[in-house]
Amino acid sequence: MILEGKTWKFGDDISTDHIAPGRLFHLRSNLEELAKHVLEDADQEFAKKVQKGDFVVGGNNFGLGSSREHAPTIIKMAGVSAVLAKSFARIFFRNSINVGLPVLECDTEKINRGDVLRVDLGAGIVENKTSGEKLTFVPLPEAMLKILNDGGLLAHIEKHGGFKFD
């Protein structure tokens, strides 16, 4: 799977409360409305200006905080094709794969806001088309790539009649 888009850079410790603000918890059953506020506590312009295919780039510990499974869902609904960060909170990482949102652990120091990236999920390569830098990451396991290709865990189970990877 090859992805290409523009980056939105955030720092360390972006929490699920930054992604899905707690003051809007009443919208958790209306994800389309909640997605209109995605990441607004970290960057007020993000939800208004993010475009289909863009990347979210973070530092360390992206997605910390409460489990809020709707946090990766609304990032995906906003059109983001993948989240790249130095590290992720484990529950956020698992929830992202389950909803079909690619999450990649790589060194994000040399990625700047607005850079255009080309990401090859299978090969583990991030090409920064703006700077010419190439980064590598450990590719996601084959099972996770199949779940992502199917659109998430539920879609994978529906498609294959269970949790199957043959």
Could you walk me through the main structural features you see in this protein, from its secondary elements to its overall organization?
By secondary structure, this protein is an alpha/beta fold. It contains seven helices and seven strands. The protein has a seven-stranded mixed beta sheet with strand order 4-3-2-1-5-6-7. α4 (70-77) crosses α5. The radius of gyration is 15 Å and the shape is globular.
Topology:
Elements: E1 2-9, H1 16-19, H2 31-35, H3 46-49, E2 55-57, H4 70-77, E3 82-85, H5 90-99, E4 103-105, E5 116-120, E6 125-128, E7 134-136, H6 142-149, H7 153-160
Parallel strand pairs: 1-2, 2-3, 3-4
Antiparallel strand pairs: 1-5, 5-6, 6-7
Helix pairs in contact: 4-5
Give a short summary of the structure:
The chain is an alpha/beta fold and 166 residues long. It has helices at 16-19, 31-35, 46-49, 70-77, 90-99, 142-149, 153-160, and strands spanning 2-9, 55-57, 82-85, 103-105, 116-120, 125-128, 134-136. A seven-stranded mixed β-sheet has the order 4-3-2-1-5-6-7.
Low-pLDDT segments, ≥5 res: none
Distance between the termini: 19 Å
User: Beta fraction of the residues?
Assistant: 15-25%
Biggest sheet statistics: 7 strands, mixed
How would you sum up the global shape? Answer: globular
- Output the structural class: alpha/beta
| Overall residue-averaged pLDDT value | 95
- Alpha-carbon Rg, integer: 15 Å
User: What topology, given as strand order, has the largest sheet?
Assistant: 4-3-2-1-5-6-7
Order of helices and strands: EHHHEHEHEEEEHH
Q: Helical residue percent?
A: 25-40%
Number of strands: 7
